[in-house]
User: Fold this.
Amino acid sequence: MLQTLLKVGDDLVQAAALVAGEWGGEGPQTVRAGPYLRRPVSRAPVARPADVAAVRDYARDAARRVARLSPAARADILEHASAGAVRNRDALARLLALELGKPVRDGRGEIDRVADTFAVCAAEARRIGGENLPVAGWGRGVGTTAFTYRAPVGVALAITPFNAPANLLAHKLGASFAAGNTTIVKAPPQAPATSTAIVALLLEAGMPYEAVQLLHGGGEVGAALCAAEEVGVISFTGSAETGDAVARAAGAKRLVLELGGNAATIVCEDADIAKAARVCARTGYTNSGQSCISVQRVYVQRTRIAEFLEHFTAAVGALRVGDPLDDGTDVGSMVDDEAAERVVRWSAEAAAGGGRILLGGTREGATAAPTIVAEPPPDASVITREVFGALVAVQPYDTLPEVIDRCNASRFGLQAGLFTRDIDRIVTAWRDLEVGGLVVNGSSNFRLDHVPFGGVKDSGFGRESPRWMIEDYTTVKTLLLRGTSLWGDHA
Assistant:
């Protein structure tokens, strides 16, 4: 396998076994211009059809060798990678700031999660096993012993997004390796250096070169990999529209799709309004709102909405917007100018329909000012579509059944938040909201990396987090021993 050099600012980050064909700096490249610095910060080779074909062949041949690596060995490697993430925390956070405009403070938080995710993957690798099935409880099973074990699927494909490229790659690649697969990674064009650095962490920790192949490129590279017959399972995080394309290209393959959202948070009249406002302000603009569970829609009981808006507007107004490399920055830039313009355009549309822009509604380059839209019309894009940006819409409601219906009117159903002290409201919302998860006394924008995470409707299917991803990355194999049983040969 080759050595690939990827330029990151004024430094060179070297990672082995990234593509299967020679690349000496010639041929097509992806050049990433930092959205805040507005100059090139990284570049990487774009995979050509020959590279895709070579990777497919190599992964197929490597799968059996990776599967024979013991769970203990896989776990040890993942634990070393976790420690490596801790050691390289500041450098990796800087990469995130350069490539994506993510505040370096938030970038450190993402790398902390990478370390945790690798550690959880290691623990789950040690727990992979099987069952001794109780077949003798039925007459035809008497005289037979049955066992199962979880075998690696073989070749997994991980397609990762730009908004959390380090941690979401850690989830997909870490869980796949824990399960004993070889993994092909298609990195997001917006974060080639970050993706390369996470792969390099694992290789430096001892992951065999056969266990991972990293390709850079756009949708055509992803489509070719999805259609590859060598691939047995695909994990994709991204938009609902791209998820549809992945499913069509994949055909009859296992899929884990974590797609879009326009997450709702409900604030009930019995809530601590000041606390709810502070939490929504903090989590509505993290990573400039570029999260599938970012607080996008806040529904506040009508009797408390004026109080909520007062606290919320003050908290959002206090957020510091600026240089993502500055430790004091709360909100950096968005991924590109078009993403920031979407915030401006959709907030203006909401205002034209009768909503009120309380803050923001402007941008400077790729930096969108944190925007609050109060009482937009129900058919506004900020309500019905995924903003994926630094905008929160606030609306009043009267009753819990009414607001649940309004939340469920969305085509998405990833995660919701609920602020209340009433257990009946909690149980009702948990039962009736059409979402994959509910956060109580927190906003929609909260995730624990070892807890199942995923949605319903157009937010996808399958559950991320290592334990649940390992189930999708493995297949159950059964062994039947006829004439061998603890229970004798007769019913």
